[in-house]
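Before a colleague's protein record goes any further, I have to sign it off. What it holds is a sequence and that sequence's fold in token form. My question to you is simply how this chain folds and whether the tokens agree. Thanks in advance; the entry in question is below:
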Amino acid sequence: MKRFKKVYVEITSACNLSCSFCPQTKRAPKFMKVEEFSDILDMVQPFTDYVYFHVKGEPLLHPQIDILLDLCAEKGLQANITTNGTLIGRAKDKLITKPALRQVNISLHSFDANEGNMDMDVYLDNILRFSKEASEKTEIITAFRLWNLDQSNITNSERQKNRHILGRIESFFGLPYRIEDQITKSRGVKLCERVFLNQDYEFKWPGLEQEYEGDRGSCHGLKDQIAILVDGTVVPCCLDGEGVINLGNIHNDTFSKIIEGTRAKNILEGFSRRELKEELCRRCGYRSRFNK
């Protein structure tokens, strides 16, 4: 039986921010019902050990995220959440006690879209306190993401803001070094037990309007990962935020039938020959990160 390292489940397409690096979905805001989520877990459970609450949308907006995490535990699945972190303070009690929660990824570079709504230091205080409590009381991993390694095209104000964020992290964890002197694209920094900071370069989400990148290459989509949008549409990877490569709908067909369908097989067979069968894949710059 085919196994996936990651099955992304978009529990909501709604978001409380509008980040420049993350195009707003054209799909209507929607929250996955508990019953729908439970059915999806039943179908994907034989194919993976890990579900990721992520594609588009902010998962901490889901009012029943604690129930969704309980369902993961009941079905023997570990959950991973990717969040902008702005709601971590109010959601902490719904997360910190959940045995299914394996990892929380917090996108620090999303803060720019939050200006005017929350003070940066309040934001940082909330996420830093969460990471420390998670580290001391649970087995939850916290990974801070700061995808702005390319500092060549940013303003002095943006550079100062970045240094402020890193300085707060250094001070909170008592680091005896500047993070910039330690971190590389391929290796993050361990801040304390089960708390990490990872930096990378910003990327463009693939879209049919994006620049043509070529028809040769491969991808982790459908090999290591697959994604299910909030309406049940199954897509090959977590970057198909508009459901362009629609493999089928999990509310109409079984998960196993969808991944064995003609379109999915054609994509995989193409990857095996380094041929990109889908136009969206040909306009995805992210794949270049693992095609070198």
Summary: The chain has eight helices and ten strands. The CA atoms of residues 65 and 146 lie 25 Å apart.
